[in-house]
Amino acid sequence: MIRALFSGATGMIAQELYVDVTANNIANVNTNGFKKTRVDFEDLLYQINKVPGTEVASGVQNPTGIQVGLGVRPTATQKIYTQGDFKITGNALDLAIEGEGFFQMTMPSGELRYTRDGAFRIDSEGQVVNGDGFLLEPAITIPTDAVEVSVGVDGTVSVLQAGDTAATTVGQIELVRFPNQAGLLSEGRNLLSETAASGSPVTGTPGEDGIGEIASGTLESSNVELVEEMVNLIIAQRGFEANSNSIKTADEMLRLVNNM
Question: What is the pTM of this model?
Fold first, then answer.
């Protein structure tokens, strides 16, 4: 009965984390380039009262033994990098990645961060930046007299300047991919950073070497499925209630024993 109390408690803690992660997925249902998170669980140690295969008589073995589990714990929260839906905006600097890859952003410290959010804009100096003002890497500057901007599927940025009839190339967008993108560290603000688990970034041209192409005038939506997340909330709630009931049952049994 004491074991049941602690096992139930671990179950409640695990389901609480499940709700937290699911709530964050739902909160970011309209966040550009957001990737939903999944929680993985594993069972805890077992109290072995009888080992399977123990000989109970001459030539006779116990087929299953007696093993009592001691609860559950979360082992990982994993980003699921499936493609989100596309929404057409018509803004040339709204960019979506069709396939694998991340945009590179230069932080004020000079360090690089990575994102799937392609909602870019131009700052006061004509540089292409994200919503927080961080520079796209490699840096691209749009001339002040540009009347039209276009971005090709290969990341080539071209502008048509006032008085010209032919477009001029002003930059090339590069994307990166990682051996294990699920190992990237989420920092908020739609930014990710490299870790030992993710491996080193591999830089390339969009559309080459397994890197996705760029779709201009388009943004990638979150890959969160609301119906799926609502079902997960129900499952987590029922799991929390069931674990709570197991604690109540063990407590009631202890009360009866104490009153004997």
Answer: 0.88
